[in-house]
């Protein structure tokens, strides 16, 4: 797992396998919650975008402005080339723990698997705190940080429910995609769901 925290791992992975890959969930599994918390005309930052189709699928569904960042220069160059005809999807090489955007730049920040990858690396606790501080800084008032994770609330909430950010955090679950169409996911089983943490800046909790 430790390799997921290293830039060199991602550069090598994307060089070897440039085909689109979605960790955890495709847009179809997240669209209901995304549409609830993120408006189509919001300015969105996709943190740790990789070569996921999530931004493309959101764009096709009407989301108009999505800035994508990733720590891997390799994948950023690939995605700039792939989406050169879609002006609404921009890609930049950047570390989510040290964002180069002005304060209050975005209505929403989405991170699918990014927090989990950071937690695999060295200095993980400090780096997750840096990520949260930076996301809080670039979010507008009442902005939303939308996190997709395999981590259970007992672990992940300690990083998010921090008075430094004053976020209102609501926790949702979505069933893991199943290979078999007949399989009925058990949402009580931590291994059969992914967790969505919705951190609202200056908002109110809406438990789901």
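^ structure tokens above, recovered residues below v
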């Amino acid at each position: 797992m430790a390799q997921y925290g290293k830039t060199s791992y991602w550069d090598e992975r994307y060089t070897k396998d440039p085909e689109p890959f979605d960790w955890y969930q495709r847009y179809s599994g997240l669209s209901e919650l995304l549409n609830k918390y993120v408006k189509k005309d919001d300015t969105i930052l996709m943190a740790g975008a990789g070569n996921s189709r999530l931004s493309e699928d959101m764009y096709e569904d009407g989301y108009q402005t999505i800035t994508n960042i990733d720590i891997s220069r390799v994948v950023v160059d690939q995605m700039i080339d792939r989406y050169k005809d879609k002006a609404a999807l921009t890609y930049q090489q950047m570390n989510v723990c040290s964002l180069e955007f002005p304060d209050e730049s975005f209505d929403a920040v989405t991170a699918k698997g990014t927090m989990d990858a950071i937690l695999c690396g060295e200095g993980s606790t400090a780096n997750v705190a840096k990520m949260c501080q930076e996301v809080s800084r670039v979010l507008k008032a009442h902005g939303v940080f939308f996190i997709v994770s395999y981590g259970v609330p007992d672990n992940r909430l300690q990083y998010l429910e921090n008075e430094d950010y004053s976020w209102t955090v609501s926790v949702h679950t979505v069933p893991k995609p199943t290979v078999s169409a007949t399989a009925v996911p058990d949402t009580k089983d931590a291994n059969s769901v992914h967790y969505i943490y919705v951190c609202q800046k200056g908002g109110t909790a809406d438990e789901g």
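Residues 7-176 form a domain with the Rossmann fold fold (CATH 3.40.50.150).
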